[in-house]
């Protein structure tokens, strides 16, 4: 195994588009597991643009992520909520909705929750 592995999201192993052209997930596969970069366009909301793909009532992925740019609001099924923005690391447990806040795309890198994100129903959300 080489001491340095380099992958570039612009040459992702897989790209998954979101509904209505509201963004995409670029996924790179590593020996330590998949890492994803998602671009959530203004107007994107999980319940509108991923729910039809995932087939679950809320996002059932657990996220460990870093926000590169833009802002997002996350609301848990129990009603607790929080906003994340540039420079923030955040973790979110399964059972939530989320949406872009403002007019700038929200770009997020996630090490935990994007393996099956935006994959067809039955794969996870």
CATH class annotation: Mainly Beta
Low-confidence stretches: none
Radius of gyration: 14 Å
End-to-end C-alpha gap: 31 Å
Number of strands: 9
Per CATH, the architecture is Sandwich
Under CATH, the homologous superfamily reads: Jelly Rolls
Class by alpha and beta content: mainly beta
Strand order of the largest sheet: 1-2-3-9-4-7
Tell me about the largest β-sheet. Answer: 6 strands, antiparallel
Helix content: under 10%
The SSE order reads EEEHHEEEEEE
Pfam families: Cupin_2
Protein name: Cupin
Domain Cupin type-2: 62-110
Describe the structure.
It is a single chain. The protein is mainly beta and 125 residues long. The chain has a single domain, classed as Jelly Rolls (Sandwich), CATH 2.60.120.10. The chain is 6% helix and 42% strand. It is built from 2 helices and 9 strands, in the order E-E-E-H-H-E-E-E-E-E-E. It has helices spanning 46-49, 51-54; strands at residues 14-17, 23-30, 33-40, 63-69, 71-76, 81-84, 89-92, 96-101, 106-110. A 6-stranded antiparallel beta sheet has the order 1-2-3-9-4-7, with no helix packed on it. A 3-stranded antiparallel beta sheet has the order 6-5-8, with no helix packed on it. The chain starts with 13 loop residues before the first strand and ends in a 15-residue tail after the last strand. The model has no long low-confidence stretch (mean pLDDT 93).
């Amino acid at each position: 195994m080489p001491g340095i592995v380099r992958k570039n999201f612009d040459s992702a192993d897989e790209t998954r588009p979101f509904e209505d052209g509201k963004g995409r997930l670029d996924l790179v596969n590593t020996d330590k597991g998949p890492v994803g970069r998602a671009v959530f366009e203004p107007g994107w909301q999980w319940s509108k643009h991923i729910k039809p793909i995932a087939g679950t009532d809320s996002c059932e992925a657990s996220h460990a992520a870093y926000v590169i740019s833009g802002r997002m609001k996350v609301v848990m099924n129990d009603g607790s909520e929080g906003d994340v923005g540039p420079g923030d690391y955040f973790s979110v447990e399964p059972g939530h909705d989320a949406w872009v806040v403002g007019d700038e795309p929200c770009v997020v890198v996630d090490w935990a929750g994007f393996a099956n994100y935006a994959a067809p129903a039955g794969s996870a959300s």
